[in-house]
Amino acid sequence: MAVGGKTVEEIRENKLEFQQGVLKMQIEQEADLDPKETVFLDRAIPDALAYYRFLGLQPDDLINDALTKVDYKKVFILERLPFIKDYARTENESEQLHIHSLIIEVYESLSLPVVHVPVLPPEERVQFILNNL
């Protein structure tokens, strides 16, 4: 999504356009993945539906079509670490908790195998995930 000199506020002003732009990039990235490889995604297509719901946006053909094509062997949802405000996140802690619960709801509604990863030291989180592949 080309943003050419816009502020964060200007980019996020049109919520639907912003979410569609993020989703289109995610669709492109996932289309380029080798299905024979083990790949970990920080964010994936279903996350977009959680953000649509959080923002009160109606799911459109773009998201509905993309969701019919997701085929993940397993989904790892990491329990949240302590809240830290940064430059990129506009949500407060309460909103982030809501988004996290929506993400869980979306993945579980898609009947994908979901593994919840507890808060652990980084090395232990990695081992937990590897043990549950």
Mean pLDDT across all amino acids: 91
Strand order in space, largest sheet:
1-2
Main beta sheet, described? 2 strands, parallel
Query: How many DSSP-defined strands?
Result: 2
Please identify the oligomeric state: single chain
Distance between the first and last residues' Cα: 33 Å
Low-confidence stretches: none
SSE arrangement, N to C: HHHHEHEH
Explain what the structure shows.
- The chain has 133 residues and is mainly α.
- It has one domain.
- The protein has six helices and two strands.
- It has a two-stranded parallel ribbon.
- Helix 2 runs antiparallel to helix 3 and helix 3 crosses helix 5.
- The chain is globular and about 45 Å long.
- The protein starts with 7 loop residues before the first helix and ends with a helix.
- This is AAA domain-containing protein.
Short description:
The chain is mostly helical and 133 residues long. It is 52% helix and 6% strand. A two-stranded parallel ribbon has the order 1-2.
SSE map:
Blueprint: H1 8-13, H2 15-31, H3 45-55, H4 61-68, E1 75-78, H5 93-109, E2 114-117, H6 122-131
Parallel strand pairs: 1-2
Helix pairs in contact: 2-3, 3-5
What characteristics describe this protein?
two-stranded parallel ribbon, 6% strand, 133 residues, AAA domain-containing protein, mainly alpha, 2 strands, P-loop_NTPase, globular
